[in-house]
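Human:
Care to share another protein and its fold?

Assistant:
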Amino acid sequence: MNKLIIGTCIVSLLGGCSSMFDKHIEYDYKQPDFFPILKAVGYAPISLQPGKNQQQKEILAIKASKLEAYRELAEQVYGQQITASSSMRGMITKNDTLNSKVQGAVRGAKVIKSYVVGDSYVTELELDMKLVHDLYIGQVKPRTVKKITYY
């Protein structure tokens, strides 16, 4: 009797799974119609950089302005996470804080220009979203269901 019940359960379970094996799914790959080109500018003061001489300060300002431009690009692509808090005592604000966070990977950006303006170093970056799309497609194939055929 137990063998009959176990056999019936196994046949029922296998029969319920059979629909997984008798269909064919066709996928369609879509590409966006428009790819924007994002631009960002980063600034860094030369004289405020830590360094023993002017050349070291300039090199650090170059790096800092480039990082600032990348941060601005990441902000455009991924957005900013804002957290704020306030505390009051006796209807007087005691503590008011506002924090901002940007997080993301930027691939495919190009340095358009790097130059000095007064005591600041400026770096201009450009991010072609067509290139970003092509890099993304190389890793992950986004798809939509085009057609499902059941057998």
Summary: DSSP finds three helices and seven strands in the chain. The mean pLDDT is 86. The longest helix spans residues 54-78. The two ends are 35 Å apart (CA to CA).
